[in-house]
Design brief:
Blueprint (H helix, E strand, L loop, with lengths): L8 H7 L6 H10 L6 E5 L5 H8 L3 E6 L2 H5 L9 E3 L12 E7 L10 H11 E12 L18 H10 L2 E5 L18 H21 L2 E8 L2
Parallel strand pairs: 1-2, 1-4, 2-3, 4-5
Antiparallel strand pairs: 5-7, 6-7
């Protein structure tokens, strides 16, 4: 709880940017083709990613510890985001197909890491996935942010998720890369999925060397 007061208006104006995640939302829908998706965005801020997901037909919700963010949430998602943290998720067991935590886990106290893992596993459905981004401890100056109190080596995150019975893909950007581009290649997603797969790992490795680690973990039964 120590750093919660730091996530105020100044923090959001200086550090938080809104970058569309629709390329990721489309990827999630493709992976769960034929079924409806319920998603939780942890550390949702003002609710931009929740809005992106809703616009893609995903039943999305969000939680955040910042009262400033919640009080200034986007009007269209105010009824879908609430106070909560990754160590205390205010939802029921096995409620979500997908969870996202973009630049969140580095902010929790190290002693709460195991509790975080238990909460993630509790709230995810079997075969559900969580997408995480966090600083790579081996690269990047942003790991020295004073609110980054739980920056770990990539191997640590892989091992702890595997210990909690997750299948882990590291250095992997889970998205349809063609949707990064304004005028994307007119190729069916089923073909594009296969074409892009090597590039998702390449982009993940590049991102990790720039200081940002991507991780996708699937909850095993």
């Amino acid at each position: 709880m120590k750093f919660h007061e730091a996530y105020n208006a100044e923090y959001y104006s200086e550090r938080i940017t809104n970058k569309s995640k629709k390329h990721m939302m489309k990827y999630m829908k493709f992976l769960r083709k034929g079924s409806s998706l319920k998603m939780l965005d942890i550390g949702c801020g003002r609710g931009y990613y929740v809005r992106d997901a809703l616009e893609e037909g995903i039943n999305a919700y969000g939680i955040d510890v910042s009262t400033h963010a919640l009080e200034n949430a986007l009007a269209e998602v105010k009824d879908r985001i609430t106070f909560g943290s990754i160590t205390e998720i205010p939802f029921g067991d096995e409620e979500f197909d997908v969870m996202t935590a973009f630049d969140v886990i580095e902010h929790i106290h190290p002693k709460d890491t195991l509790n975080m893992m238990e909460e993630i596993r509790r709230v995810l459905k079997s075969d559900g996935i969580i997408i995480i981004t966090t600083p790579n401890s081996n690269f990047g100056s942003w790991v020295f942010d004073l609110t980054h109190i739980n920056v770990r080596p990539p191997k640590f995150w892989k091992l702890i998720f595997e210990e909690h019975n997750f299948k882990v893909q590291m250095f992997y950007v889970p998205s349809f890369l063609k949707y990064y581009m304004k005028n994307h290649i007119p190729m069916p997603d089923s073909i594009e999925f296969l074409v892009e797969e090597p590039f998702r790992y390449m982009l993940g490795r590049y991102s990790a060397r720039k200081g940002r680690l991507y991780l996708l973990a699937k909850k095993l039964r």
